[in-house]
User: Fold Cell wall hydrolase SleB domain-containing protein from Candidatus Amesbacteria bacterium GW2011_GWB1_48_13.
Amino acid sequence: MKLISEDALGIITMWMEARGEPHEGRVAVGEVIRNRMKKKYSSDGTVAGTVALRYQFSGWNDDYGNNQQLIASLKIDDADAIVQDCIAAWKESETSDLTGGALFYVNLSIVQPGWAKKCKAVTKIGNHTFFVPL
Assistant:
C-alpha cells in the first residue's frame, strides 16, 4: 500500500512548482512529469520515481531549503482554489500536449541552467520556458 498516491504526488509537485502560474502553466508542468515517465527520462516510470529524483524538481530539493515548501504542501486544504486547479490540471495533463513533448522547464528570469544549451525551447507558458532535448 502506498501512503501517498501517484496522483497526489503529481498534484503536490504541481502545487510546489507552479502554484503561481496560470492554469495552462500547471498543465504544462504535469505534462513534463508525464512525458518523463513515458520516456523514462530521469524516471523509473512512476510519479514518485520522477519527481523525487534529486535535482529534477526543485520543490523536492532540500539543498535549497525547500523542505519548508514540502511541509507547506502537506498543510494545504483541498478546498483551496489553487489546489482545485492543480487537481484539474493534473487530470488534464494526462491527455494534453501544450509543451510539444517537453522534458524540461525553467524560469529563465531566475536561473540560466547549463543544460538549456543542449535543448530547444518549444514554448513559454507563464514564467516557465519548456524544452526538448536537441
About this structure: The helical segments are 6-18, 23-39, 48-51, 67-74, 81-92.
